[in-house]
Description:
heterodimer, A: alpha/beta, Rossmann fold, seven-stranded mixed beta sheet, B: about 350 residues, five-stranded parallel beta sheet, 11 helices, 7 strands
Amino acid sequence: xxxxxxxxxxxxxxxxxxxxxxxxxxxxxxxxxxxxxxxxxxxxxxxxxxxxxxxxxxxxxxxxxxxxxxxxxxxxxxxxxxxxxxxxxxxxxxxxxxxxxxxxxxxxxxxxxxxxxxxxxxxxxxxxxxxxxxxxxxxxxxxxxxxxxxxxxxxxxxxxxxxxxxxxxxxxxxxxxxxxxxxxxxxxxxxxxxxxxxxxxxxxxxxxxxxxxxxxxxxxxxxxxxxxxxxxxxxxxxxxxxxxxxxxxxxxxxxxxxxxxxxxxxxxxxxxxxxxxxxxxxxxxxxxxxxxxxxxxxxxxxxxxxxxxxxxxxxxxxxxx
Amino acid sequence: xxxxxxxxxxxxxxxxxxxxxxxxxxxxxxxxxxxxxxxxxxxxxxxxxxxxxxxxxxxxxxxxxxxxxxxxxxxxxxxxxxxxxxxxxxxxxxxxxxxxxxxxxxxxxxxxxxxxxxxxxxxxxxxxxxxxxxxxxxxxxxxxxxxxxxxxxxxxxxxxxxxxxxxxxxxxxxxxxxxxxxxxxxxxxxxxxxxxxxxxxxxxxxxxxxxxxxxxxxxxxxxxxxxxxxxxxxxxxxxxxxxxxxxxxxxxxxxxxxxxxxxxxxxxxxxxxxxxxxxxxxxxxxxxxxxxxxxxxxxxxxxxxxxxxxxxxxxxxxxxxxxxxxxxxxxxxxxxxxxxxxxx
Lengths: 321, 344
């Protein structure tokens, strides 16, 4: 049996619906159609009345989820594309994220964001939104890079008592496969060493983990041993694992598919520079998408986001320092 | 919910009888006197942040509170002191939140009108207008999913909020789901300083109900009797499974947007119109006309309320305020996921 990242997300939701009667799914086209990407395929049939089509009203979709959470349910919201979550942004960052702080009543909602670029998707179907949600207090932001994590972290997200923004990467939906679903997993909040190395630490997450791993393979031909840290969750951020890795390698490259300004890569560099300055043998660097909207044409798109090639190039520069 | 003042309250059928009217009036009076006290405290510099009063909107607001059961859902807005009290919000919740007592439900983390007890069906508004409507939808939706019948949810908004996308999304959503939502619009003629004509151009906001496929009602928001009748009917319709109800009330805000605002932009013409009447005075005149109460009794109620408010304010002024060193500074409930990246 072989299972894709997308199928793992479907299976995780089926698991949550099966195990917990408080769970329901609400989003555009998620019902009998099974979702724009088929992440809820057949779920409305298997769980009648619990997988419901929503109008194109992202604000009201999240607002309804918050109300249901107040009443003790565990809604999963599917945003059709992460990009559209900006329409529901207010309800996520001002309603859901402040509820516990203000009232002591937890707000267990999971908002799934199909994010990231695929060739030809253009400016409004390609965005990665983790930085902007992580900026707000009161939100957990998850960025699984593997089939196993997509499954186990989504199940854990639904079980958490806090609002979770679950950033699932569309580029990984069909490409990534695993033989079976995991029985156990690292908990949310723990990063994973995706590849061990001693010369340079690449800290990354989501689809960029795979670009970093490919770059590490390329660089190993030249004798470099690159350590790749997969953050798994960007909030909370596992600073300890990052710091321990930098302590081993002395060099740091942060890679993110999001825009450069004030994002996750900047946060990691800030933490390492302020708390682990003495561990560094070279200035820490980062590699992000270019500071423009995500381009439509594949020629432009592949140059816009980091790739294995640009990661390897950036790594070489640091290794020469 | 604990009620400090013992004003008897029973669920109201559509149309107001003597007892209902008296109950409603007493909550209106209490709310007005509380508002007067906040205004005085604000002028004396005893309140941090803003003060937002409900003067002129008490009749509409109280009609919501007395028409709902305690097991229902109420998302009040900034001018709903009367409705909150009638719904069952303890007076102390209001005073503590205004004065920043750490014993209040918001514990100094939020203030003034941003208070509530969501686990008891009283939602704490966020400042983004229209945003509470879909949350009420979600609570009603969840109760239906859980098989809890008979709940009604009221969301309170103003004329300004009808211009938001949230209003549109949520009312449409409620209509699609046929939820027992009563959306009460207090058209007080101004969204802060902006007159109706810069917010919408339809002849009457209640006409919008047709476009959403929901029932629409209009009411004179200065007439307590009418407010009790129309809100009571809308709540009854919703409870009976007739789907969302949009109620639009005409009235005038008899104060600034907040106490920092002198409301110099209000057209004086409004004050001579029916909608510019003071609903509390109208209700008092009606009570006396009907001979439901003696003038001396009215004076005694007023005096008793003032004494009690003074006592409660004095009590709260001696209560602890939030301690930044005792604050845990955690915005999430999953403590094991808490992180700090500040250098110790």
